[in-house]
Amino acid sequence: MRYTVLLACVVLASACGTGDAASTTTATPTTAAPTTAAPTTAAPTTAAPTTAAPTTAAPTTAAPTTVADPSRTLFDFVEAGSLEGWANVNDTVMGGVSSSSTTWDAGQMVFAGDLSLENNGGFTSVRGPIDARLGDLLADATQLTVQATGDGKAYLLQVRTVDDQLYVQRFTTVADVEQTYPLELAAFEPVGRFLDPLPDAAPLDPSRVAQVVIYLLDKQEGPFRVAVRRIAAV
Prior knowledge:
Layout: E1 73-76, E2 87-90, E3 99-105, E4 108-115, E5 124-127, H1 134-138, E6 143-149, E7 154-161, E8 166-172, E9 178-184, E10 189-191, E11 209-216, E12 222-233
Antiparallel strand pairs: 1-12, 2-5, 3-4, 4-12, 5-11, 6-9, 6-12, 7-8, 7-11, 8-10
């Protein structure tokens, strides 16, 4: 902010007068004429008012924080053994040439690879184990959260129910920053086997979720990497 200060110049005017003294050199006593000093009058000083430019602070908006209950963690990759049951499926099953791998690093599941559009390909995925107990953790939840360090790309999270119904929702990561991405369970959209929308299908029943899958697709060609620390219900 620029502040403008108006400075007042103060002018002080003083007037001063002095009378002359009369004197003689005779033997008679010397009598000095009375001296009368003219009164001094200071010019009144008026300071110009100082007006500060108004200061307006930009409003601060805190990003919403979603805290997952540790007791409702679906997957927590605290050790290398946490990856048991996770597997990669790429477009090579359809003739594509995309590649991906899943490794463990410092408490995170690292899903990385290279997405290619050659041969009509264009997807990679990592799929968790099928476990009907996931539905118990999600039964009365409102969100599924993914705590991860991304690369700026958008990933798709798919949940599969015990009766093989599929529902998806995308989340766009922030590059090189670990964040928790909240996904509203009510916002998951039903899709078919090839991720085609099924608008007339029933909405997701979280209590029936049995598998979680993470995809990279949407023609986001090139290398990618997302490191997932935790997937939880809130």
